[in-house]
Amino acid sequence: MWIPTEHEKYGVVLASFRGTVQHGLPLEIGDTVQILEKCEGWYRGFILKNPNVKGIFPSSYIHLKNAHVKNKGQFETVIPVEDSVITEMTSTLRDWGAMWKQLYVKNEGDLFHRLWHVMNEILDLRRQVLVGHLTHDRMRDVKQHITARLDWGNEQLGLDLVPRREFSMVDPDEISVTELYRLMEHRHRKKETPAAASTHHLFVHVKSLMSANLGEELEVFFHIYDGRENRPLSERFFVRLNKSGLPKSPEKTERQCTLFVDLGSSDLRKDVYIVVHIIRIGRMGAGEKKNLCSVQYRRPFGCAVVSIADLLTADSKDDHLLKVYACNTESEWHQIHENIIKKANSRYNLSGSNTGLAVALQLLHGDIEQLRREYMVLFTRGVSITRKLGFSDVIMPGEMRNDLYITLEKGEFEKGGKSVARNVEITVYVLDIDGQILKSHVTAGSGEPGGDEYHSLVLYHNNSPRWAEQIKLPIPVDMFRGSHVRFEFRHCSTKDKGEKKLFGYSFVPLMQEDGRTLPDGTHELIIHKCEENTSLADCSRYLKLPFSKPSLPSNNQTLKGTKESFWITSFLCSTKLTQNGDMLDLLKWRAHPERINDSLSKLKEIDGSEIVKFLQDTLDTLFGILDESSQRYGLKVFDSLVHIINLLQDSKFQHFKPVMDTYIESHFAGALSYRDLIKVLKWYVDRIVDAEHQDHIQQVLKASEYIFKYIIQSRRLFSLATGGQNEEEFRVCIHELFMSIRFFLSQENKGTSPVAQTQAMFLRTFPAVYGELLKIFTVREVAGFVRETLGSLPTTVHADCPLEAVKLQCIAKTVESQLYINPESRCILLPVVLRVLQAHMQEQRDLVMCARILTSMLSLIKKEETGTAEPVVSEEVELIVESLLGVLLRTILEISNRPQSAGTAMRLQFQDVTGEFVACLLALLRQMSDRHYQQLLQAFSSKDDLRDFLLQIFTVFRILIRPEMFPKDWTVMRLVTNNVIITTVLYLSDALRKNFLNDKFDYKVWDSYFYLSVIFINQPCLQLESFSPSKRKKILEKYGDMRVMMGCEIFSMWQNLGEHKLNFIPAMIGPFLEVTLVPQPDLRNVMIPIFHDMMDWEQRRSGNFKQVEAKLIDKLDSLMSEGKGDETYRELFNSILLKKIERETWRESGISLIATVTRLMERLLDYRDCMKLGEVDGKKIGCTVSLLNFYKTELNKEEMYIRYIHKLYDLHLKAQNYTEASYTLLLYDELLEWSDRPLREFLNYPMQSEWQRKEYLHLTIVQNFDRGKCWENGIILCRELADQYESYYDYRNLSKMRMMEASLYDKIMDQQRLEPEFFRVGFYGKKFPFFLRNKEFVCRGHDYERLEAFQQRMLNEFPHAIAMQHVNQPDQTIYQADAQYLQIYAVTPIPESQDVLQRDGVPDNIKSFYKFNHIWRFRYDRPFHKGTKDKENEFKSLWVERTTLTLVQSLPGISRWFEVEKRELVEVSPLENAIEVIENKNLQLRTLITQCQSRQMQNINPLTMCLNGVIDAAVNGGLARYQEAFFVKDYIMNHPEDGEKIGRLRELMFEQAHILEYGLAVHEKFVPQDMRPLHKKLVDQFHLMKSSLGIQEFSAYVRASPVHFTNGSPRPCRNSVPNIISPDGGRGIVRRSYPAVNRYSSSSLSSQASNEVSNITGQSESSDEVFNMQPSPSTSSLSSNHSASPNVTSSAPSSARGSPQMAEKHKHSRENACLSPRERPVSAIFPNPLDPAQRAAPHQIGDTTLPRSDPNLSAPDKVRPTPSSWSLDSVKEGAPSFSDSVGKLLCPPVPPRPPYSAGSSAKNMRSQSPVPTSRSPQKTTVPPFTPSPTECQSASLVSNSPVLSGSYSSGISSLSRCSVSEASGTELPAGDHPPHPLPPPTTLPNSVSSSSDEPIRRENKTPPPYSVYERNNPRRPVPLPHSLSIPPQTDPPALPPKPHQLRTGSMKLDGTSDPRVPRPRPLPRKVSQL
Q: What are phi and psi of 1761, to 5 degrees?
């Protein structure tokens, strides 16, 4: 049975539990669980991190912990009873754990590893705390360490700052807001700027001395030296080194490491140095022989110097190698360091190039105790302490020190009868009073223990040696009296024995008779002669002798006259001994009573350090004197006491204040002193007003705190001793004293007067007295003193009076004192405090101090409030609200709006003050109850006052919400702020409803309210979705979701507005929209209906809601681009509003608005998602294009449209799509005109005129067209700019523009352009973005990008997409699938500009532009078998399904891909397919032959392979298969309509045979020797092939052209010029115009039939075009994949690509050596699929092959049109009136841009003459515009074909109706004549219509404004008006019918056009040569 648990409430999981049992709860080790019930070894409960899931688990898996239970019952919460630091560590480590893994994912390795170490460290420390074996101090250190680590980690991970008190987290609800702010501020400051340490320490570690000439032991001395004052600052640190230069005692680290302690900040400057002296121990001369003598001397070796300032900049942990210098002469050894510092190079030199001292030097900061904690290793391992000479900057009480430093300065010695100077060594001893040598009391320096004696260094042959050696004598205080120091002088002989011979001594006693020690300074000592050591044994003998020369009596001339002297400098650093006689006199006052007056006067002159040494003794002396003779010395003792008290205010001695406090509490015994002290103090106070000099009185008042301490303690001692006698007398005295004080305080003075300064001095010290007074007086009495004293101050003071600031400081200290904490005193003092505060805050003075006072006051109020507010507290709050709330709000507004001053200090100060005041305001508002709010609102006398108050408080709240209000990691503070704000707003909204609605409506207040609410909801710190789950849970538990609360309040207030809502439409649409975008479902559900309300009210007001729509759209873009909103929001917005408007009368327009906004959201969301990706890809660009078009077409928002144009432009530039970038920028360019209208600054454009901006855009676009190799488009813009410059006579720029234009022409001719591939991409499935979903596009590939690469790129862009393996249209299941499917295949472009492509003589460089630019239509062929497949001959059933895709815009354009607008599908019959295949093969053969002849080929292999492929087509039977399929009787009988096509096929087969024969002739000429056998084989097989075709002999052909084609072409070519192309190779200018499209009429051109068949053109395409052939179902096995000629394109699945019966090795052209898969043969020989003629063909719907049809067929037969022949004859017979319409279809070709020829009648010379004028093709006068799709050539131009001979016959005349050329006829150049006379013009009725002179313009469905190709720029002298595309001057004629339109319209041949709109088509800018 399950029983609720009583104590087992909380536990931690010890082992993971899978929860496999029924109702089992899976647990992971470390989870914390709350237990609800138990039953037989099982618990039921939940994991704390997921309380919604409850289950059972074994009790053995749980470790129970003690816990508190709150709210027992169903909603109980459990808090573990453990140290709060442990709780915090646990939760923090859990949060870190998840983030730590993310660091690894983000590749932030450094932080990852550092955090890992810190986490381990915290876990280790946590264990230590949990075990609980730590001492109290150690526990404190550990907790401090833990919190420091936690704060570091939180900061690194960007988590929140945790407010702590004593290492424990603070609950913000349990302390006042002011206190919370103070804690946060303290932690923030601590984190920001660690306080600069005032004390510093230098750590020195000696490593080794490196030198080549060692071999002797060394002594190394370090000390710190002041270069400015030329004196040492510290004692010496001494290290012994062995003969190798390493420390002698390496195991004792204290012998090689030291800490130079107590350096002040002033010591860290450039002229303070570390000086190192090195002494060697050994022979006198460094080079002497080893065995010369055994005596060792201390001799100079070298010196090193380093500046302390260098350590501040260098990496402190680096080892330093100090250069060691030696002095040139030993006599300068004492100042070698000074010479090095001064860089006196002549006096020292390097002691060896490789000599160096290796030391580690590091500066440490902070006091010693702090260092002990931070560098424990240092101190535990051992380090010697090297002290400063003298006391440190701060003297600590209890510090014991008694060090005498003696420096051996110099000596003057006589020769002593020797010829050379002496080598003098001094030995130093310390002897006690008994003459015994003190052991171990002579120290050379720290680091080595003291010795009994000290030997100085020896300077060689020097009678005036200067040693400058410092020694330390640490003699105990009790041994000082009677002790003396003896110096013995010996001469060190360098002879064999090397003995040291005594020749004299000096001595100095350490203490004088009167107890004073040896004074500091230099002493000249007498050298007493002595040659025997024994004579020094009894020191009593020589101690009677004089020791120093200055102390010699004047009659002792013998000693005074001696030249020998010895100088020492002594310095005593003692806390117990003094050298001051005055101090000793005062302390011994009883011995000399007569000197008391004198001693008291001299006390002020004694050094402070001497006084604090004997502080207690001095104070005892003073009070002793006072007790014995108060009348006589009272005033002097009082003054001395004041002097000592004020001495302790000095920072150097401030640490002695506790010593004085201890003295007062424990040692002070002056029970009667209080009377004298009060009397003297009152005496001084009474004289303040009259005194001239206030200095001394100010010193007295400065000491008043301690004076009162002495008074109170004295009175207490007296009361204890006497049982409280004279109590009343004492009170009266104190009252009188305060009356005197009040009197002097009440004096009004100017701020600078001495009395005012004295008043200020008293106020500074007054608060310190409260505590003392409370020891005797009651709280109320003391509060009364304080109130009256402060109240006595003059009230009318000037604002600039310094007394005001001091008064405020006094009040601050009062509020912070113990007195104010007591509620009794608080009610007395509060009015005074509030009065002063209010006055200051109203005048905005001393705000920092005001904030401090207010903070303290409000902190106390919180402390009192436990549970319910006590009446006292409530009254206090009331008082504060009444006097300060308004002024506090004004102050915050004032500070926030104040411009930030330049000074950072000032700015920081205001920042601090703002925070303080804000905390005060929040604390006050949090304390206010309903009653307080009611009283506050009732207190306003008028509506205007209430209105101003509300506006003020709303504005302040808006300021509080600002992100910069608090540092970003202060989430705790922000949440408290928001909680207070929402509570207050709920109170105030009632006042708003009651007072400012209906007739009293006030827009400003309501607007302020709504604005506040909106920014409240949008704060980052309330967006719980962005927080970790644990943080979110904590916030929700504590505060709930404050956004929803505020949202409900907004909705409620909005509903109250009624008709006043109209005031907020459209202003509040944006803000409310921002609120609804917050991802909180409840908030959205509450707020979205407001939009319905707005629409409703707007509809009532204006009959529509255009305003609402405009505002919604404007705001959506900016908000969503900031990352707000999501798919859920879009759906919610749509569904909620649609539901709301169901019953409205304006439902239709509402639905339209909602649909528009929803569609915009779709695009904006897509755009945002795409922009998140790193690289620029098609998705980003496509998305931007979609959005840009939406803004233009659907929303007509020009500014947004332009913004997105520039975003798209930037994307293109980034992706290096320069052509697309140009087209994009053109969109903006075309919105501008050539006018002088001024334009504002916009995006990156400066303020400029419209003309300037358009000029800049033109130049930028031209530059990008240049980079994108789209030079033709650049030229058009150059011309437009040139016209502008010309019209303004700006010839300089005109010249530049013409040069630029010329350079573009050069680039067209000289530079190679890569021909892009085009790919059709289908995006299917619901997972694609809206702008792609279930749509198909055609994409322009990158340079060199093939299908496989493109496919891979698309799959990389859409990594989740599945590539479809077939090319069939997908079904609905794919469309609706929740996935992404990509269908990709290559397509062939269908160029529009056929006239240029078909013109002869136009270089390929020019043609390549027209092949791949301005392409609207693309084609894709898929072969398939219809009916039963003939296994013997599959060509019988091989059909081709041809798909033509039409785009919405032409490529290239503003994007690399555009959507497919229309699909057309036609099927090509097997016969038509065969015709196409052979045509293509013939074209390929011609091209290869020509290239071979003109030596364009590097080798002959391509031609060889092509010939071989056609002749030896053994795989599928070659042409024979076609014969079997289509020339049999069955086929002809079954397909009577294909008669002409069969004839055409036969004609092409014969043509192929002729070409092959000529090709073999050329091949024979060039074939290399090793391939001769293959050539012979080909010739043999060719004869077999001929015989199979039934061709016996080409006699006529051979006669006419045995080795070459007469006139350059074996087949007559209209307009061709004489051109010899022979195997010998010469190549002339070639005009290519092989038509093979329409038929000549048999009547007029019958004689040409045999010519056309028997003559084969040798016309060449560029070699590039050849290599593009791919296999296709054909006899020849090779066809063009990419050629514009119709064929089965290779983009079909690979199975369909190769010829069905082809050998595997030939199946794919990429495996075929002779072919490159790149180039496309598009030539005039065989027409491109979009030839004008082909456009005129009836099968244009999908089949762009041979434009022939049978006009006799009726419309129903043409449901799926099949190609058939369409000759002019048949038209003439079937429809006599057709000649008129043909006339309208005729149009001249497009030459390159013609020059302007003045006065020529070129424009009238179009093509009306049957024989064109003989002009060069480059100079043709035909206007340059692209022909209409309905244009075809005049039959009269056909007659230009030179006829070779009418007698050639090949026996196939029955099939010989020759074809009419549809290619552009190019005139013969002037002077060129055909070799044969031209025949008369063909007689076609109305062959040329005059209407062909008019440019024919296609109707344009939606002309793309960015199409450069459509620019029309006739030369005009004035600036062009704005136009997207300029129409021709005369109205264009109605469009004539197109053949395919006629055909679909039941063959109406009467010229009426089909109602369908034709495909948009670019229109060239130049209409004529005007």
A: -65, 140
